[in-house]
């Protein structure tokens, strides 16, 4: 699945809806046993949640958007397929979450590319299921420090921390992703799927059990004037950076 929503593959409501429909089609196709996620936009895997979806909109819109974000994570983290992220560009926040939610992450070894859960830098807080996914990948200590500081890690640092599993030159990315996929698909599906489910069930169940509470928490948090102001300032900062 190639993300192609220029300029930065931000995760808008439309993007997320299309992502979920695409994933469901693949999940229901008995001939499809694995998916490689990558980007068709140069230098960007995904810039994370579309900030304009969380800024200056109605409470109803925030709730609809957050349910879609939850759905995307539930479907991907709970997928029976082998999921490989071929990270060919920067991947902050929600973009990093997509990569973390996969079974395996390969990143291009470009010193300009960054990845991480940088929510704290925007004055917002990564929800518990972002945090759980991060902890399950890198362990508690690395996740705690990285989340509190809202760190965006270079590709080599991300590799050192275990946030990505492998680094490759850009020209080798697709070949490497295909080789990893072949290795994972060599196992019997039922054994691999039951193992995956056993490892992820507690974290998935936790969101399912608290889904509406999590929506209300997000809506209350994001609609606070102080948070709206932080997000507006952040968007301004992104635009000024270009001038
Ligand atoms: C209780 C729970 C509460 C809250 C939890 C909410 C969780 C949120 C998780 C998230 O995902 S928040 C989003 C965090 N994302 C970021 O911080 C990334 C911001 N973007 C960047 O750092 C850079 O844009 C980039 C490194 C991805 C790419 O840099 P570059 O190639 O130089 O592009 P530009 O910065 O010039 O951006 C082009 C264009 O795109 C707009 N844009 C960038 N990111 C976003 C975004 N996430 N949402 C919406 N729009 C975005 C940027 O403003 C530029 O727009 P122009 O109109 O100026 O062209």
UniProtKB/TrEMBL annotation:
Gene3D superfamilies: 2-enoyl-CoA Hydratase, Chain A, domain 1 (3.90.226.10), 6.10.250.170. The keyword Iron does not apply. InterPro entries: ClpP/crotonase-like_dom_sf, Enoyl-CoA_hyd/isom_CS, Enoyl-CoA_hydra/iso. It comes from the Eukaryota. Belongs to the enoyl-CoA hydratase/isomerase family. PANTHER family: ENOYL-COA DELTA ISOMERASE 1, MITOCHONDRIAL, ENOYL-COA HYDRATASE-RELATED. This is Enoyl-CoA delta isomerase 1, mitochondrial. It comes from Athene cunicularia. The lineage of its organism: Eukaryota, Metazoa, Chordata, Craniata, Vertebrata.
